[in-house]
Design a protein that fits this description.
mainly alpha; 30s Ribosomal Protein S18; binds zinc ion
Length: about 100
Amino acid sequence: MSFQKEGGRGRDDDKGGRGDKGEGMEDDKRGGRSFGRRKVCRYCADKNAHVDYKDQSALKYFVTERGKIIPRRISGNCAKHQREVAKAIKRSRGLALIPYLVLAG
Ligand SMILES: [Zn+2]
């Protein structure tokens, strides 16, 4: 009588493999944000210009292709006018001049 251990039942040695989940962690973020570098907001700069919710072409400047409002940092508006613009955009969305959301990439 001898105990025979059934040790090797097909050892799964290659289970697990190598988890190659690295997604190339290369953060090449250098502070090079030379996007819309506007010194003052365009509405302050041009006193004749005013935020108009009917002015679709002007408002589109402050909206991404997807229909999102561009943040103040990028648009360069001052706080006051950014608010006006945001309001105008929302209003003109209601008039279907500007899309709420563009799904197509
Ligand atoms: Zn302004």
